[in-house]
Amino acid sequence: MLRVHPEPLRRARGRPLLIAAALGAALLCQGAVAADKLDPKTGTRYKADKDMAAVLDALAGMNPKPIETLSVEEARKQPTPADAAMAVLKLKEKDTDPAKLVPDVIAADRTIPGAAGALPARVYTPKEGPGPHPVILYFHGGGWVLGSKEAYDGAPRALSGLVKAIVVSVDYRLAPEHKFPAQHDDALAAYHWLAENAGQLGGDPKRLALAGESAGGNLALSTAISARQANMTPPQHVLAVYPVVQLANFDTRSYRDSAQAKPLNKAMMGWFADKVFSSPSQKQDPRVDLLHAELRILPTVTLINAQIDPLRSDGELLEEAMKKANVSFKSQSFKGVTHEFFGMAPVVGNASSAQHLAAKELRQAFERSLRVSDHRPTETKVEDNKAAAASKPK
């Protein structure tokens, strides 16, 4: 609320120009106070918790340049939040080998078919537990311009161990070399391949889920919708971590209060959008603007957001849209953490909490799927599947 001292206004009564000057001075003072209250670590009025602050300090110590001022080639060479998390582990004299951080998971690289050729992928398989395992297709973040399966190794590796699921993390094509909708086309092609070939990985094709962070969260949600529209085997669950929900409105509450946030800010989101789309009108495509997508055909959803994040309000807008569409979902916003926190469980306590929440919801979705499958008569499964496919939205 704007608070204006009454004395200048009393003196200016009846003199419009003086009233305007008094109000302007009050606004300037208010702006100065707001700027003074910004936390230097986060760039917002919110303070990072102790764990998150340590990561932000480590990242600042690497002297990253503002992404929005760089070329794509330069941006891809910048230190990442994942690099900073590893630096914190080193400072604590802890092992930084991912295989030792999650020892109950085996990771192997391979390629899988995309929409326009083979895509690099990393397959995480739990060492223990009876198979076949449920299967999760995971999409990394990076604004569809940056990121890779290496930079986003932490989250899919952890989910594999916690859920006892096979997780496939795919390197979809990036912009600006490949403009929209290349990323979404690759995501859907990867899911189609997984639905047809889960058994080859030791997975259960009846228990499939999609997951992703940031731009990858958008891919997970849009792929779930597109898969249903294309009459593919539907996923049982979607995990969306601080997803990009829309790119039409950069004036939401969180875009304002976290405009200077670290490691993701408002200017970076504009930089990403400039690289991804051939024309501004593509931002209205329902695969990008999920608020106008066919949300009603989504499976159950887990939505995780961070307090210190310009995308926080996107998550809130998605919650409201899913409520109106009668989508069953679980959501939680974690305080004191920033965008990119989810994969930092070895050093950020809230990341561990978020991963355990996500794993619980995924396990429950897979268990529900098994119960439904167990109660369906064997002799009618083929006909039931045909009927279900015929009734799906096109």
Verbal overview:
With 394 residues, this protein is an alpha/beta fold. The chain has 2 domains: 1-37; 82-371 and 383-391, 3-Layer(aba) Sandwich (Rossmann fold). It is 42% helix and 16% strand. It has helices at residues 6-11, 16-36, 50-61, 72-75, 81-91, 98-101, 154-163, 182-197, 215-229, 253-257, 266-276, 312-324, 349-374, 381-391; strands at residues 105-113, 118-126, 133-139, 166-170, 203-213, 237-241, 300-308, 329-338. The termini are far apart.
List strands and helices in order, with pairings.
Layout (H helix, E strand, L loop, with lengths): L5 H6 L4 H21 L13 H12 L10 H4 L5 H11 L6 H4 L3 E9 L4 E9 L6 E7 L14 H10 L2 E5 L11 H16 L5 E11 L1 H15 L7 E5 L11 H5 L8 H11 L23 E9 L3 H13 L4 E10 L10 H26 L6 H11 L3
Parallel strand pairs: 3-4, 3-5, 5-6, 6-7, 7-8
Antiparallel strand pairs: 1-2, 2-4
Helix pairs in contact: 3-5, 7-13, 8-9
Could you give a quick summary of the protein structure above?
With 394 residues, the chain is α/β, with parallel strands linked by helices. Helix content is 42%, strand content 16%. It has two domains: 1-37; 82-371 and 383-391, Rossmann fold.
Low-pLDDT runs of 5+ residues are: 1-14, 16-33, 375-394
Task: Name the structural class.
Answer: alpha/beta
CATH topology of the largest domain: Rossmann fold
Strand content: 15-25%
Count, helices? 14
Distance between the amino and carboxyl termini: 49 Å
